[in-house]
Write a structure and sequence with these properties.
Layout (H helix, E strand, L loop, with lengths): L3 E4 L2 E4 L4 E7 L8 E7 L6 E6 L6 E3 L7 E6 L4 E6 L8 E8 L15 E2 L3 E6 L1
Parallel strand pairs: 2-11
Antiparallel strand pairs: 1-3, 3-8, 4-5, 4-9, 5-6, 7-8, 9-10, 9-11
């Protein structure tokens, strides 16, 4: 059974940085596309960033481009989200997602990921 667990969330001032981590209980982690999404109450889950199995393809949501960086360490079965220049509108619950797709290009839609973590709260104070 695939399990994902996020950590690293918390309270930070606007302009600050946070690094989220996601640990996966997947033996063949390198075969999984990974992504981060976020959600605020009353709104749909929003795409943040995605990374292909090999790490050769990355995609970012327009609102985080140039500020967030997704990365992975297949040896540690982990994916990371480095968040810089945080804004109050980045406040949300952040979710790690993974899928064993054969596609080379990572998906950016919620429905393209079959495995999800429980989420970690990020709060940016202005």
């Amino acid at each position: 059974q695939v399990q994902l667990g996020e950590s690293g969330g918390g309270l930070v001032q606007a302009g600050g940085s946070l690094r989220l981590s996601c640990a996966a209980s997947i033996r063949t982690f390198s075969r999984y596309t990974v992504a981060w999404f976020r959600q605020v109450p009353g709104k749909e889950r929003e795409f943040v960033a995605a990374l292909s199995r090999s790490g050769g393809y990355t995609y970012y949501g327009d609102s985080v481009k140039g500020r967030f960086t997704i990365s992975r360490d297949n040896a540690k079965n982990s994916v990371y989200l480095q968040m810089n220049s945080l804004k109050s509108e980045d406040t949300a619950v952040y979710y790690c997602a993974a899928d064993s797709t054969s596609a080379i290009v990572p998906g950016t839609r919620v429905g393209e990921y079959g495995y999800w973590g429980q989420g970690t709260q990020v709060t940016v104070s202005s």
